[in-house]
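Deliverable D4.2, example record:
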Amino acid sequence: MFQNKMPRYEILSQDAMAVLDKGWRRLVSEMGVEFMSDRALELFRAAGQKVEGNLVKFDPEFILEQVKKAPSEFDVQARNPENNVHIGGDSMVFAANYGSPFVRDLGTRRTATFDDFQSLVKLAQSFKLMDSAGHTICEPDDTHLDTRHIEMTYALQTLTDKFYMGNVISGPNARDVIKMTEILFGSRESIEKTPATVSLINCNSPLRWDDRMLDAQFEYSAANQAVILTPFIMMGAMSPVTIPAALVQQIAEALTGIALSQLIRPGSPVIFGSFMSNVDMQSGSPQFGTPESAMGQLCTGQIARHFGLPFRSGGGLNASQTVDAQAGYESLMTMSATFLSGTNYVLHSAGWLEGGLVASYEKFVMDNEILGQLQAEFTPIQIDEASLAYDSHVEAGHGGHFLGTMHTLENFRTAFYRPFLSSSDNFDRWTRNGSKTTDVRASEIAHKMLEEYEPPAIDTAIKEELEEFVTKRSKELTA
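Output generated by the structure prediction step:
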């Protein structure tokens, strides 16, 4: 798990923060937010908020009181304790792509299968930079819709020993994930003491939380499992076109969702979520890796810290149809802002392509290269007498070179970041080796890692109990 010790890049003045503060307060109190759940409405009504049908109009001070109950930092346990993570503060946690119905394997774009899902999970386990495979790296179309969440969760539990995310399609699905997590970690008490899952609860922007997501939120928050309350904002479609307006809407939506979690279970872990970009105003298509989305990330980090909350944002987002220069520069635009803002939880860290429609094998590798380089860039430089290497100057002399000096020989292995994907061969050597472009090299790396993959050890009794649950529950769901 990476610790970002660099200064945060904060671009909002105190006056700007005051304007945004006034804006979200007006939005929640005058416009209100819809909650398509009777349980949620009853909790808000009992707490003294104004409920009109499915619409809740909030006292902003009530929201702030609830937000203060949420922890500013918390731990998440993994099956392998070495892979436990801390969310909040300087910690940056990286989870893989999420939610793609298609995959791309070099030149082939196809509907995702369960084999693809398992392969991408294995890649997430194999890359040390990945803290989690997430959950739905891709949507396996060849599995039964009613049992898909169980099969994916079992794969995440057995093919990796990192923490995983929970299914949020419905309340019953969330209960299944919680039960399987209890089996994996020994008891309900164990996972309530230290959360073992993080689940993504998306707002149906603008200003509506739907019933299925809320049902899942009730289950996870009641079990003290972490939830990411994320407005889904594409400026120009799901929010006004200006960044300040989108930020105000994002605050209103995220904080009201967080307030609900604290009513369900005070002190339950939450993450201030942000998924904010814009649409192409000529075509209406979603855009990613834009200057506006980067600015939104920088602002979101500052806003979340203002409320004392860990936050989720960023990732390797892009709108490119293939792993090309556009995929690279848009992903780097997004991921650079992710680091500059000090994002605590980074979803879509690896594999995202074509606006999220595609999970790509070669993009998964390329994103890990980007992550590795940025982690090196955001590691503070140690400046001391030894690092000035004066003796190396003496040894090289005027007009000499440093290739053979003692200082170089002692430090060359660790002096610089060593890319595993990039090529620095001269043109002749690159041509002799097949003129392989970045996507081809990335594909070869991905498939080599899959060939060499070895599943992490798991207790036989626990695995058998999980298999028994999967078999029994699958029969119940398909009866």
